[in-house]
Amino acid sequence: MTRPEFTFELRVCQWAEREWSPATTATAESDSAVFVARQLGTRGRRWDTLVFECDPEGLAARSVFGTERLDSDLLHVVRNAPREWTYYRDALPDPGYPWRYVRESIHEATDRGILDQRRAGNRIEIRRKWHYPDWLRRIVAIENKPDLDASAARVLGDQLERDVALALADEVWVATRAVGEESGGVEPALLERLPVETGILAVRTDDGPTSAEVAWHPSSLAVDDPGTRILERPDGGDHDESAARFEYADPEWKHAKRLEIAERAYERGWRSYVDTMRPDCRSFELRDDGDTLPWCAAKGHSPTARECSGACPEFGPEPPRWRTHGWPIEGGPGKGLKRLLERQRARRRDP
Ligand code: SF4
Question: Looking at the record, which segments are called Disordered (predicted)?
Answer without folding.
Answer: 317-351
